[in-house]
Prior knowledge:
Blueprint: H1 11-14, H2 17-22, E1 41-49, H3 62-67, H4 81-93, E2 111-112, E3 115-116, E4 125-132, E5 139-146, E6 155-160, H5 171-180, E7 184-188, E8 196-198, E9 203-205, E10 211-213, H6 214-217, H7 229-238, E11 243-245, H8 246-249, H9 258-276, E12 292-298, H10 300-311, E13 319-323, E14 328-329, E15 336-339, E16 342-343, H11 351-365, H12 380-389, E17 391-392, E18 398-399, H13 400-406, H14 411-421, H15 439-449, E19 460-465, E20 471-472, H16 476-480, H17 482-485, E21 495-498, E22 506-507, H18 522-532, H19 542-552, E23 555-556, E24 565-570, H20 582-592, E25 599-604, H21 624-639, E26 650-652, E27 686-688, E28 691-694
Parallel strand pairs: 6-7, 6-12, 12-13, 13-24, 14-23, 15-28, 17-18, 24-25, 25-26
Antiparallel strand pairs: 1-4, 2-3, 4-5, 5-7, 8-11, 9-10, 15-16, 19-20, 19-21, 21-22, 27-28
Helix pairs in contact: 9-10, 11-12, 11-14, 11-15, 11-18, 15-19
Amino acid sequence: MPSVRRHRRTSASLLTVALTAALMPAAAAAAPPPTAPPPGFHHLTSVHYDGTDDDLLTAGLGFDGLRGPLPAPADPDRPTAAELRRQAIWASAGMAAGSGGGLGRLYGANVDRGRPLPGDGRIAGTEYRAVAGHGADSVSFVVQVPDTFDRARPCVVAVPATGLGGVYSMVGKAGSWGLHRRCAVAYTDKGMGPAFDDLHSGTAMAYDGTTGPRTALGDRSAFDAGLTDAERARFDAARPYRVAYKMAHSRTDPQATWGRDVLRSVRLALALLNRDERDGAPRTGYTADTTTVLATGVSNGGGAAVAAGEDDRTGLIDAVVASEPQMNLAPLNGIRVRQDGRAVPAAGLPLIRYNSLASLLQPCAAVTEPSAPGYATLDVPAARRRCAALVGDDPRLITRRDAERVGEGGLPRLAARALVRAGFQPQSGYLQLSHYDPQTPASYAMSYARASVDDALCGYGWARTDDSGTPAPYRRSELAAAFGTSFGRAPAPGVLIDENAPGGPVADSKSRGTDGRHDYNLRGERCVYRLAFPPRGAAGDGWAARLAAGLEATRRSGDLHGKPALIVHGRDDTRVPVNHSSRPYLGLNALAQQGNSTVSYVEVTHAHHSDEQTPGLDNRYVPLGYYYQQALDVMWQRLRGRGGELPPSQVVRTVPRGGEPGHAPELTEANVPAIAADPAAGDRVRVERGTVRVP
Length: 695
């Protein structure tokens, strides 16, 4: 039997005196404690891991196990919560990517400041799990407290999930970093995560990741599509085998509360520390005054960390570090962005707009990059038909005048230029095809508009399919594995479905037009695009208005209330373009701080949104994760009083590995120069009179 000491408590017994006291002013701490926990938190458990059979960082696998294959459960149809947790932590480490790109050698869960960590990486400590809200409104939290927690100089690292991932998705990145610094780490899934509701079998996911009949899970269900039994029966009869998932179909617009969720994770961590870690604690307990709190994340987790910094008006958070943050910005109010002395064509668009536009253009533009990853799977005749379909009066697409000038053969080049006009970097053309993902704008449109699965907005659904692309029932093992293998969309191998295809519902990738030819579902993509860019006079009506309202609730203002922040972003990012995120945010922050920006921005050349090292990416790009880990170190030195001011905003000029695709030499420190404390004048990013100037 594993020597793991488990002690589980109900929410009422766990969150009593200390949890409430942590949220009260110091003067009131001596008041009689309430007999019930604060509202909202429930399903709290705690488990102590001994660091031998199981642990906080590697789930008992050690670094060698993280490098191996996905750990299989004893019964694939009925994995335990512990087995699902192990799979989720294994996936968070990403160690299977190999060391050629520096992961596991220069950065990663087993590397600290470029030095390999001794031992196998296991870290003993206590892990708490909690939930706030219920069902579709629920948010999951995990707090990890290492046995080596620094009570003399206490710290909490608040880490929202990356992308649409589950609550453990950042354990191997920021979680590892925080645990190695003897901090408690507070995670949240931001109200998204892998929860689903299979409308055919009635299977749903519980808060601990296990699955079972929706009706049997009761108040343990992490998501319910919200249909009555009669509505479910009608839906399944009309569209059998479909699945609803939380991010798209919760009808709650979870992005609107990302900042609040991160702040709640910090308050929960402080309360648990005050309850269980009082020996050697500061005299007044663990509070915002006695505890260093760093909020940090990657991608939309980075956006959530920034949101927490903006939402925090009481000084709970001390600093923010974000990597490639996905943020929907407030109107720029005159903020401009210039690169190399020239105004960028577009800046500050929200994700739903630049992404829906990109989805329309990418199949056509991909024809210009025959050496790009994924080109072998491109249906070139269908892509050229997409080109012709984009010709018209819309200046964001391909105008008739330009089409007549270049002829049919020149349309792909015009589509590529349209992407640049939309704010993408010219050199990102090589990545556009690998980033073609129409389910991203479709699911975000549903989320912003608070649509139900039954609405099938723009004719989209999700299902497992057979080889022909026809919806088919999930296997039990596929649904059971979702907590560890799904990344916040329909459980694998579920795909986007074109519900309105002329021959009947089919996988979106196999969709055909009215002429019977493959067209990458132009009809559905146009629909999402029109919702994101409604025609003049239509914005106040129907779904477009609902989408606009949901989008408005997610806007970031740039006001961090004086908190220091360090943002790193890859210049070639094609998922979250720098012109729509970090660059204009730097300007917004300077405006909010009356010209004295508290944000330091590091833009990394030859880096994009993923550290993936597949052939064709390995020889062209360096990992942004290397700079994220470095940014955390830089901020930590400042917070601990050893690093002075943050480095000035700058461009870091990296050197790609080179070589042939799939055979690039190993990344070395010569490829990835450090963030400079005093960058050369020609590398500095400046904000001058409302203009962000990027060299």
